[in-house]
Amino acid sequence: MNYETYYIPANFTDAGRVLGLFAPRNLVETLIVTLPALYLCIMFLPLALTPKIIVTLAIIVPLGGFALVGISDDSLSRWLSAWWHWRRSRRLILFRGEVKR
């Protein structure tokens, strides 16, 4: 028997990702989360331009980074959907030492 060896490159999972790191779904969710926050900061902060930019960046950069990375390698909407499903379907388990038959 003659077996051929195939080598899988280290970056085989990078296909379809933005900058090789972020899934397109996470990028879209990041825009959905950060653009309204950016608008609110720019329009309603009663500061001069430089402090307004600093405060806006202090809010937008962590928010955008969190949305890009996601939670447990899932996008925010997928994680929120799983959490919501778990929250609605959880039950309280009680054991009193007896089994009803």
Automatic annotation (TrEMBL):
<dbReference type="InterPro" id="IPR024414">
    <property type="entry name" value="Uncharacterised_PrgI"/>
</dbReference>
<protein>
    <recommendedName>
        <fullName>PrgI family protein</fullName>
    </recommendedName>
</protein>
<dbReference type="Pfam" id="PF12666">
    <property type="entry name" value="PrgI"/>
</dbReference>
<keyword id="KW-1133">Transmembrane helix</keyword>
<feature type="transmembrane region" description="Helical">
    <location>
        <begin position="53"/>
        <end position="71"/>
    </location>
</feature>
<keyword id="KW-0812">Transmembrane</keyword>
<feature type="transmembrane region" description="Helical">
    <location>
        <begin position="27"/>
        <end position="47"/>
    </location>
</feature>
<keyword id="KW-0472">Membrane</keyword>
